Amino acid sequence: MSASSSQVACIGQPLSWLVLERLALDELEGAAAAAAGEHLVACAACSAAMGTIRVETRVLPALPELPSLDAVAPVVLSGGRAKVSPQSKDAPRRWTRWAGVGVALAAAALLLLLLRSGPTETGGELSQRVRVKGAGIVVMTLVRERDGAVTFDPPDVRETDRWKVQLTCAPGGGASAEIVVLQSGQAAATALAARPFACGNDVVLPGAFRITGGAAIVCAKLTGQDERTPVMACAKLAATAP
Amino acid sequence: MASARDPREAYLRYGPALVRKAERLLRNPDDAIDLVHGLFVDLISRPEINVELPYLYRAVTNRCLNLIRDRRGRARLLEREQPALVPPSRLGDQARVIGLDLLAKLTEALDEDQLEVVVCRYVDEMTQDEIAEHLGVSRKTVGKRLARAHEVIAELVAAQGGAA
Q1: CB atoms B88 and A56 under 8 Å
Q2: In chain B, which residue ranges form alpha helices assigned H by DSSP?
């Protein structure tokens, strides 16, 4: 904590990072763009800063999509061993509108089965501990932040809660994880998009999410090495009043 | 002039810029990505929100400050801090190096408006005129908020010197 002079000081007033970013995105116009351009020509510090923006590449995790329930439901109903076909990004989505009512009914039935009976019709139990090829035993931990308090594997959910997911498995392994949320009357929603992770102790998946609409089942769809069939680790959450 | 119209498009277009900004504040790339991703996860369910870069810049500032203000989050951030990832200031003799530790202390001594001005000035390296336009306040107001921040920083520096 100190005042300091820098070896890379600007020749005058530096172009702010916002101006540099907007310039790089071609969002500055007219006099502002011209003035920024002139400054960059004369100022090595700002020119270097602009250079870092232009050369830097960032791979950001995908934003959640709403997958079709028929892709996810069989996996949960069969205890996590059914086959799931990957949903093509190019697939037309029009049918989902036609099938909206059916999806909602199917989701309601699925939730009733899971929330009331625990074990599914096919004998599968919801479990947060599953075996995944290439990763061994993987344990999913839900992390809830409520009013500043963090709780691991809580039993219930409120709309104001913020959620993250941790996975634990033996170092050296790895798999891919996608987090989906199942709720009554709604299509299964991807809370955290699929992405690979390296095993370790309490590996925190990037991203956080909220769950609105009450009781839910949160599942990690785990796909092991060279596998096309995901394994599901799931946890039930009851609704609580705010 | 191009711009993004919906949150998904904005995420692709502005996400990297916002992660760079968050990283300058949080000093950790993973936390920065996490924060920006979380922002857009919220935004995709609120398509009415303005998704232009200046608005998103402010949203990232506020989320970062909330994270730093939260004691539990702050402890984790300080543990994971990677100061080397943050580019040196171009402000020269005007520079105050606002590290995570100082920022955490400032969150307890300054209000949100004052903190936002500090971030605009010393992290985003905006001029006072630019800050005024960005925040929609007068330049005089920006000056007052900065002056208050300088007082607090001086007190914190003095206190640290006294303790040393």
Answers
A1: no
A2: 7-26, 29-43, 53-69, 71-80, 100-109, 112-118, 128-135, 139-163
